[in-house]
Amino acid sequence: MLTGRIKYYNSDKGYGFIAQDTGEGDVFLHISAIQGGHDEIHLGQYVRYEVAAGNRGPVAQNVKILLTPLEQKRLRQGKVVIPRDYTPPQQSTDSSEQQSFTSSQKPTHPTPVASPTPQELKQQTAISSVKIDSPPDQKPSLPHTPNPKSASMLDEQPTFGDLYIQKQIRFQTPMFFGLYNHTLLPATVTGFTKYDFVLQGEAESQELPKTDVKYCYKAEDAAGIQSIVHYNEEIKAQALKPIIQRQKRYSINMQAIVQARRARHTIEVTMLEGEVFRGIVDWVSQYEIKMILENESKIVVFQHAICDFKVFPSEGQAG
Asked: How many domains does the chain have?
């Protein structure tokens, strides 16, 4: 299925047009093609759909509105869900770090890795065999690829995080990326390296450093996550920024989290901007933790954006 945004909609006449993420021509939208109700349709809403040939051009079919209730509320209030001029927050680095980010180091050519099938993903259970280390401090330039929609695979053994992203690329899964300044970015992943994501957003493709991402999840989990997330107000008030230096990041006891996964104990993570997520561990990788929250929603949190971590082996006992 394709993805795009509502470009025009006449609620009185029940039709409009979808601007496609692929950049191709607009697709005609009729109210009868929208699934799951159509009382709240607004410009800018993110949709997934199929295309059929009509008498006057392409026509959308099986249209599904993907914006969360919170985003729909913001649209009704006339607010922009994702600022078009969004820029990453300023990151405080010393001169030596700035030199490492601006160095002309050329990345090695990646070795293609075949994307796993869903059955193969289920067989990835040996968590203890995954090498755990901290996210890198250096960020090389993104390797040039003639086709931005093909994933830039890593030149090393793929981690659980890599396999997860490869799967989303293969299925062109609509996703949301939680960025700093409490910005939520809807996009599909078209490529990635060890340091960046290549995302297809509303109008164009962009390279996003992984250090700018706090968490990500599929669009189908958006409503559940928005309904369950809460904030540690004390941490939220501090307005913490991304931490680039590895030695300054919060250090997670990886043995504890692996044991929590095996025993299916509840964990709780608090992000640098105060978001609190509570659930069980689905998998853990060098840089990410995939959680199944208490309402069965699924989210991937990035370890570099965590400022507190707890394990609850039993009711009322924190570790």
From this structure: 3
